[in-house]
Design brief:
This protein is of the alpha/beta class and about 375 residues long. The protein has 16 helices and 12 strands. Bound molecules: adenosine-5'-triphosphate and magnesium ion (MG). Adenosine-5'-triphosphate (ATP) binds next to helix 2 and helix 11.
Length: about 375
C-alpha cells in the first residue's frame, strides 16, 4: 500500500480529519438564503488547512443538484475567470443558454467577445455575468464562489464591488474566501472590502488530539504496523493538532517503519530531525518572518521561559515593558494564531516545537553579531 499521508499543500488528503460538525453546518447554512454564511472567510495560520477546507466544502456542495461551485484564485482577472468557470461548470443546458447572450461567444478556451467589444472592460464582464446569473437564478441554481488566499489589491476590490451588487440584488451566490490573518486584517483599510469582512468568520484551529491519535491508530494498525497506545499518544502530542504536522509526521513514520512495521520510541527519535527540518523549511520560516520585530521579541521572551505555559507577568518582566504594550502584542499574536491563551494571564505556542525553532533562530542571529 502507498503512503496514505500527504504533506503537500492545498490538496484534500486521503487521511482527512473532519472538524466536528463544521463542514456539515456550513453546507447546511449555505442553503439558507439569509444565512450569515453567504459571505464567509476561512482564516488561520499557514498549514492549518484553509485550502483543504475550502476544497472540501466546494466538493460537498456540488453533490447537491441545485448547486455549482466556481473556484477562483487570486492573481488572475477575477471577473474574466468567473465568466469562464461559470460556463465550464454549468453543464450543457446552461452552456447553450449562455451562448445566446449577445456579443459573446464561448469556446473550449473560454469566453470570446465579438469584434465590437474586443476590449472588454469591467462593465463588459459585469453585464455578461449578471446575464449568466439571471439564467441560473431562474432555474433555481445556486452558485458558490470560492476564493483562496485573498489579499488586499485592486483586483479584489473591483470584484468585491461587483459581488456586493449581486448580493444586494438577492442573487443566490455565496462567496467563501480564505486568508492568512494578516491579509484579512489588511482588508479593513479599504471601504469596499469591509463589506467582505462583515461576513461570517470561520476560524480554523488545531485538530482534535484524540482524533489525531485515533486516526493514526486506524491507519497504521490497518496496514499491519505494530504500535502501542503510549507511542500513539506521543505522536499525537508531537503534532499538537497542527494539520500540516499531522500529515508530515504520519508520512515520515510510515516510510521509516515500512520494512519492520514497528513504530517505537527509537523510530520516533530517528525521524525527529527530519520532521523538524521540514516544519522549519515549509512553514515556520514563513510564519516567523511575517512577524514584526516586536512580535519576535515577545515570542523570544516566551521561548526563553523554562515553562511550556508562560505567564504574561513573566514575559512582561523579561521584556521590561509596560503592561499595555505587552497586552497589545499578546493580542496580535493571538490573532495570528502563533500563540494561544491557555489560562487567564497565560499563553503557550500553538505549533509543535516552535519554541525550539525560535531559540535556534535566536542563536543563529546572535552568531551573526
Ligand atoms: N482536516 C484535515 N485533516 C487532515 N489533514 C489536513 C486537514 N486539513 C489540512 N490537512 C493537511 O494539512 C496541510 C496543509 O493544508 P492546507 O494546504 O489546506 O493549509 P492552508 O491553511 O491552506 O495553508 P497555507 O496558508 O500555506 O495556504 C496539507 O498537507 C493537508 O493535507
Ligand atoms: Mg492554502
Amino acid at each position: 500500500m502507498n503512503n496514505p499521508f500527504n504533506p503537500s499543500f492545498g490538496r484534500v488528503p486521503a487521511v482527512f480529519l473532519n472538524r466536528g460538525q463544521l463542514i456539515n453546518n456550513v453546507i447546511q447554512e449555505l442553503d439558507n438564503p439569509n444565512s450569515p454564511y453567504k459571505v464567509s472567510i476561512v482564516y488561520g495560520m499557514r498549514g492549518v488547512g484553509k485550502t483543504t477546507f475550502l476544497t472540501e466544502v466546494s466538493k460537498r456542495i456540488v453533490e447537491k443538484p441545485d448547486w455549482i461551485a466556481v473556484d477562483l484564485a487570486m492573481g488572475s482577472d477575477l471577473m474574466a475567470a468567473l465568466v469562464d468557470n461559470l460556463y465550464m461548470k454549468a453543464g450543457n443546458e446552461f452552456q447553450k443558454a449562455f451562448e445566446s447572450i449577445k456579443g459573446v461567444n464561448f469556446s473550449a478556451f473560454g469566453l470570446q467577445l465579438s469584434a465590437n467589444i474586443s476590449k472588454p472592460t469591467f462593465s463588459t464582464y459585469q453585464g455578461i455575468l449578471t446575464n449568466m446569473f439571471d439564467k441560473l437564478k431562474k432555474k433555481g441554481i445556486k452558485v458558490l464562489i470560492t476564493l483562496d488566499e485573498v489579499k488586499s489589491n485592486s483586483e479584489l476590490k473591483a470584484f468585491a464591488g461587483y459581488y456586493q451588487l449581486l448580493n444586494r440584488q438577492d442573487y443566490p451566490v455565496a462567496l467563501m474566501m480564505t486568508g492568512l490573518p494578516e491579509n484579512i486584517s489588511e482588508l479593513q483599510n479599504e471601504d469596499v472590502m469591509t463589506f467582505l469582512l462583515r461576513g461570517k468568520r470561520i476560524a480554523l484551529s488545531a485538530l482534535n488530539l484524540a482524533q489525531v491519535e485515533i486516526s493514526y491508530n486506524n491507519v497504521f494498525k490497518k496496514s499491519g504496523y505494530q504500535v502501542t497506545e503510549d507511542i500513539l499518544s506521543k505522536m499525537a502530542l508531537m503534532t499538537m493538532g497542527y494539520s500540516y504536522a499531522f500529515q508530515l509526521l504520519g508520512y515520515l513514520v510510515w516510510n521509516a517503519a515500512k520494512e519492520n512495521k514497528v513504530i517505537d520510541q527509537s523510530l520516533l527519535d530517528e525521524i525527529k530531525p527530519e520532521y523538524l527540518v521540514e516544519l522549519d523549511q515549509n512553514t515556520y520560516t514563513k510564519i516567523f518572518s511575517s512577524l514584526s520585530p516586536q512580535d519576535k521579541k515577545f515570542v523570544l521572551a516566551m521561548a526563553q521561559s523554562s515553562k511550556h505555559r508562560v505567564s504574561i507577568k513573566e514575559i512582561r518582566e523579561r521584556l521590561n515593558r509596560p503592561s499595555n504594550f505587552v497586552a497589545n502584542y499578546r493580542r496580535r499574536l493571538l490573532d495570528d494564531q502563533v500563540i494561544k491563551s491557555t489560562n487567564y494571564g497565560e499563553v503557550a505556542f500553538t505549533l509543535p516545537f516552535f519554541k525550539e525553532y525560535v531559540l535556534r533562530q535566536y542563536r543563529f542571529e546572535q552568531g551573526l553579531e
